Amino acid sequence: MYRQELENYTQQLLDTGRFKDYCPNGLQVEGRKEIRHIVTGVTANMALLEAAAAAGADAVLVHHGFFWKNEDSRVIGIKQRRLKFLLQHDLNLFAWHLPLDAHPTLGNNAQLAEKLGINIEGWFGEQNLACIGKLQGPMPIQQFAALIETRLQRPPLLVGATDKTVSQVALCSGGAQGYFLDACNLGVNAFITGEISEAVVHTARESGVAYIAAGHHATERYGIQALGAHLANRFGLSHQHIDIDSPA
Question: Is 89 left (phi over 0), alpha (psi -120 to 50) or beta?
Fold first, then answer.
């Protein structure tokens, strides 16, 4: 397919126009016109770009791309090296941030909920990014944390109510600790996101709600894979997901 076709279709699919975001969504760096092989990954770091070029990719699709709000706009250092590599290899770079978090089936939150056996019942928070749902059956929070470790292949940090039974869960992948109090007000037993700050540790301890920090990268691996698989299936592209692991 052609680059512009992929851009137009995916922007419509993810309804990017409804989001206020911290970066441009869609095509960020223009490469070759025709696209046959796509590589997906969480973050457009140099290791992913090099692996994509070695795999013969025509386009790299990520969740965390370039040109973030308030970053240094100069093309120097790491930014220069990444952009130079993309341009030298005629590689397209596409990135979808909040629209990929929020999509009701392909998004990071929907895919994470499916991975953890959570049936989504509704959405909340700014731009309806976070979701709320139920487990298939109540379980002790320690057992649920062990399930998360098994499914995400990373031990989560469990803070707060560590001796409760959990059934009602809210989640938002990545760095969504700002939604914790909203989740508490919805009456959930646990809140899952990627990160936790020192101040939120104390809020979690006092809330009566279990806070589970399961890793920013670990909670955001699945949306971009689902999007890549969807595009490959619809347009006959070849798709390869390359996971450049991160402990954060």
Answer: alpha
Q: What is the DSSP string of 174-196?
A: SS-GGGHHHHHHTT-SEEEES--
Of 95, 92, 85, 88, nearest to 30 by C-alpha is 92
CATH level 3 topology of 3-101: 3.40.1390
DSSP at 18:
G
Mean pLDDT, residues 34-60 taken together: 98
Q: pTM for this one?
A: 0.96
pLDDT tier for residue 68 given thresholds of 50, 70 and 90: very high
Residue ranges per structural domain of the chain: 3-101, 103-219
Q: Average pLDDT of 241-245? A: 97
CATH superfamily of 103-219: NIF3 (NGG1p interacting factor 3)-like (3.40.1390.30)
Confidence of residue 161 (pLDDT cuts 50, 70, 90): confident
